[in-house]
Design a protein that fits this description.
The chain is built from 26 helices and no strands. It has 613 residues and is mainly α. The N and C termini lie far apart (127 Å).
Length: 613
């Protein structure tokens, strides 16, 4: 007797399964779960569930779909390397790692993970006959687990589980990744400053030094003058502020020199006093210029010592007061400085007041140098120029205009009698005014490019500074006119960044192993900073030349050396913006020199080298 066949009740079809069956381009294997990346054996490859046809619903033919279409419920696979469960599943044996296995033992193990209701339903079915139903349940669970995995990726990863070490998106890793990004795309704060650092020339003073009028050899000519000469220092200042001194000495022929010296010393006082002193000193000096019919009358000019004492009253210390020239600066301090009440920690005066006092001194010295060209010897003129240049480099005066100082320097240069002989000595002395290359560059810019002597000094001083910064000052030949370009060509080859790095590293002490990265960065910044200043000085040398056809070849050689030794050796980097600034300057200098070449008519031999053959 034939055994009655057990009819398996038809389960309701799910939308996902039906859509996958209809739209799948491969009717034998449809909608594999994204986690099933392994290839199943042919015998165990999961296919679409086989449903038993019922009499009420006859079997419908399958629809033919184009092979390049995707199922409507297709979703991208999850990112498995961020899913810790996927990492754990990938470490399991292949028999347990794939959900698509059709092994009965594997299905039983998977069935144990089902809810109780589904587990009991699966156990009631025959293993062979209920395989399709079990596969359907597993596919439904796989779809729900895929959505759960996507939600799990969106939520923060827990760090309390035992397997937190395998979590790729942990807080420690995110912090480390952020530091790597910041380090990779960070911009260095070390840039090439546009303003020179300056020198500490004037120290702060709380009160100005007292100014005493020497009345020992003065004889009064009136009762009012007698009251003034016999008054106390504070009462004498009241005479100045009230305007009585103008009525007493202006437009007269007996203005005493001690009075002019006293007014010049008052220029170093605060503006409420120095303004009246400068106005009276200027009026009395100009008035004496129009009354020089008598041979005994002349314009009074302060000596170099008096100018030095005026700077000393403003707070200048001994190296600025007594310039010693090159190779002699010892930084000594006068023994009397301790008794003058200097205190670097005191409240600093306003830098504007210091600039006003210096401008008064510059204006009056300009009047003296213009009205009496022979008032100072060449030696005094060289010392005065050096003293003025030192004062102009004060750190508090960097952002203040230097118009009065520049006008005075131009006039002092014109008053030098033996100019060709004094020029090299003056340039050598000025090249040692400061030890910083940017300060020396600012010193060169004190001299305007408006006169012949100023242009010659700018060119020769720039060469002296370049040679000193490169350690070649002793080998620099004596100054000769029209030889600056050939000397610059020899020095430009030493301005290569690698050569400057070796030169600077030899002067510095070797850093310890922990400080080597920072020391290397600082050295690179110093090299670019120095090369930037030297390149500007090289441009000054070229711009101060009156180019002739004979110098066309020398300038062309400078262009080739600039491109070969500097431009091609600069490696730009987002972490080193100072290199970019240096490379921009090299490009601008090269373009400027090329423009000079275009306007300079070369000799015929550069166009036809075979002319004489």
């Amino acid at each position: 007797m034939a055994r009655p066949q057990k009819t398996v009740p038809a389960l309701p079809q799910r939308e996902g399964i039906q859509a996958a069956t209809v739209l799948s381009p491969n009717p034998k294997c449809v909608f594999r779960h994204p986690l099933h990346q392994g290839r199943c054996p042919p015998a165990q490859q999961l296919c679409s569930p086989t449903w038993a046809p019922t009499p009420e619903s006859p079997k419908k033919p399958k629809m033919q779909v184009a092979k390049d279409m995707f199922p409507t419920d297709w979703s991208p696979p999850p990112i498995e390397f961020l899913n810790p469960r996927a990492l754990q599943a990938s470490q399991e044996p292949p028999a347990q790692g794939y959900m698509g296995t059709a092994d009965p033992q594997g299905l039983k193990r998977l069935a144990r993970q089902l809810p109780k209701g589904l587990e009991q339903e699966s156990l009631d079915l025959d293993p062979k006959e209920g395989l399709a139903s079990l596969e359907e349940l597993l596919w439904n669970m796989a779809g729900s687990s895929q959505q759960a995995a996507a939600l799990e990726l969106a939520e923060p990863t827990s760090l309390t589980s035992g397997g937190s070490g395998s979590y790729v998106n942990s807080l420690d890793y995110l912090l480390q990744e952020k530091r790597m990004l910041v380090e990779r795309f960070s911009v260095s704060l070390q840039v090439i400053p546009s303003v020179h650092p300056g020198e500490t020339v004037f120290l702060p003073r709380r009160h100005p030094l007292p100014c005493i009028l020497d009345c020992s050899n003065l004889k009064p000519h009136s009762r009012l003058e007698e009251l003034f000469l016999s008054a106390s220092p504070s009462q004498q200042l009241s005479f100045l502020r009230s305007g009585l001194l103008s009525n007493l000495y202006l437009h007269t022929s007996h203005c005493p020199v001690p009075l002019l010296q006293w007014l010049f010393q008052l220029l170093t006082w605060p503006p409420e006093t120095s303004l009246g002193a400068f106005g009276l000193l200027w009026d009395l000096s100009v008035d004496r210029l129009f009354l020089q019919s008598d041979e005994d009358m002349h314009l009074w000019c302060p000596s170099l010592q008096e100018v030095t004492e005026a700077f000393y009253s403003l707070g200048a210390y001994s190296p600025s007061l007594y310039p010693l020239g090159p190779f002699q600066h010892s930084g000594r301090v006068l023994n009397s400085e301790a008794s003058l009440g200097w205190d670097g920690q005191r409240e600093a005066p306003q830098q504007v007041a210091l600039g006003i006092s210096l401008n008064y001194i510059y204006k009056f010295l300009t009047l003296c140098a213009f009205a009496r060209p022979g008032a100072y010897t060449d030696g005094n003129l060289l010392g005065l120029i050096e003293l003025l240049c030192r004062a102009g480099l004060d750190v508090g005066l960097r952002l203040l205009p230097k118009t009065d100082l520049q006008q005075l320097l131009l006039q002092l240069l014109e008053n030098i009698q033996e100019w060709p002989e004094k020029l090299p000595k003056l340039c050598r002395a000025l090249s040692w005014v400061s030890d910083h290359h940017h300060n020396l560059l600012a010193l060169v810019q004190f001299f305007l490019d408006v006169t012949t002597r100023s242009r010659q000094l700018r060119s020769q001083l720039s060469l002296e500074v370049i040679a000193r910064m490169l350690g070649q000052q002793e080998s620099l030949p004596p100054w000769q006119e029209n030889t600056q370009l050939s000397l610059l060509s020899r020095l430009l080859s030493l301005m290569r960044p690698s050569s400057l790095g070796q030169y600077l590293s030899s002067e510095l002490s070797p850093p310890c192993q922990e400080q080597q990265p920072k020391a290397s960065t600082d050295l690179d910044h110093k090299v670019c900073y120095l090369c930037h200043s030297l390149l500007i000085l090289a441009g000054v040398v070229v711009s101060c030349q009156d180019l002739t056809p004979d110098q066309w070849g020398e300038l062309q050689l400078l262009c080739m050396q600039l491109d070969r030794h500097i431009s091609t050796h600069i490696r730009e980097s987002p972490q080193a913006m100072h290199r970019t600034k240096l490379k921009d300057l090299a490009a601008q200098t090269y373009i400027r020199w090329q423009e000079l070449l275009a306007h300079c008519q070369p000799q015929a031999q550069y166009f036809s080298p075979w002319k004489d053959i």
